[in-house]
Amino acid sequence: MNRPSGKSQHAGFSLLELMIVMAILIALLGTSVATFQKSARASNVASTGEIVVGNLSLAQQIANTYNRQVEVRFYRLPDDTGAMAYRAFQLFRIEPSGNKAATKPIRFPQGVVLASATDKTSFLTLTQQTADASSPRLPRVGTNYQYVAFQFKPTGETSLDPASKWFLTAILETDPIQSNGLPANFLTIQIDPVSGKPSVFRP
User: Fold this and answer.
1) Burial class of residue 88, CB neighbours in 10 A (0-12, 13-18, 19+)
2) pLDDT, tens digit, for every residue of 107-142?
3) Is residue 99 in some structural domain?
4) C-alpha–C-alpha distance, residues 169 and 122, integer Å
């Protein structure tokens, strides 16, 4: 007849084994968080495209409905550190009495700006204007901004030179730049100056 020994039949985990399991769990958690953050940042670039394209279509609709030109302004604003970049835009209806805001200022999703090189954002070849005391005050920055602008006409066409190509490229401000002058994740919107139709391109 077998007698039970004085020791437990089921030994527990040793401290070393628990530490190994914890290290594996922490490594898996860190990888998951990094993957989630990368996915969220990529989503911000895609969302910027949707927001800009949607509002360009809205600008055309407003121009047609009110039989007025609608100006699209891209704002060069400082971030919390004072670094300037194009990170917002706004629509204005051009009336005989002056410009009337058709939307509130629309900021790009967190971390997204327009690429500053003119071969990546040709809108930056337009005349850059500096806000003054008569300019609209923007949340958090007042009149500390510059902007470039173009207009949609009631016919749907734009004020842009039809002989040139017009596009903007949205990037994540802190992503490393590759040999092509862009980060790995970017989105380009090209606008037909005659029809006003936007086209979206992604890598």
Assistant:
1) buried
2) 999 999 999 999 999 999 999 999 999 999 999 999
3) yes
4) 9
